[in-house]
What does this fold into?
Amino acid sequence: MQDFIEQSLFFGPVISLALYEVGLLIKRRYKLAILNPLLITAIVLIAFLAVSGVEYDSYNASAKYISYFLTPATVALAVPLYEQFKLLKDNLAAVLCGILAGVLTSLVSILLLSKLFGLTHEQYVTLLPKSITTAIGMGVSEEMGGITAITVAVICVTGMIGDMTSEWLFKILRIRHPVAKGLALGTASHAMGTAKAMEMGEVEGAMGSLAIVTAGLLTVIGASFFAQFL
It folds into this structure.
């Protein structure tokens, strides 16, 4: 059985998508923020690989093809933005300032924490793209000499934290405007944050879609500048 799993071209995608679907069902059933489908998938999958003895490289040999859909899925987020284009025009200045503030907060916080904990330059640049989508973050990390695998993990963790904590943070901070919610989620938690924003409403989803693209471009520019500080 182990040999079959390791040699199968379908094992990786099938088990990944099946576990994610189970995670979605659990989230819908219990409606708890901590029951993030991606988190459930990762935990169960790690446990399965450890118990079965299947090597990660064998799993990833077929599962890696799922990531090819990441870029077109990100581009498709432009659809809800187009549907809310008038809202964007009416709030353009506030939208751009909000995204810029979010990007700068992310980069500055990584710089300060890296200095505080004595991280190396390689570790520092690995963390800089933490708040942008994986499709962009991997390229940024690789270009600056970071550890791409860790960058992917950090991006996923950032997205899950945003998904799990956003609702109660909005309540505590009394953030009620749909534009503000969407921008915050898209800027801080990339695609996962935008998926959460879409659950909240069309306006939130549209602003999250805009934030992903804009924050990604600003981070590419900003990360190159901030990389020189450590």
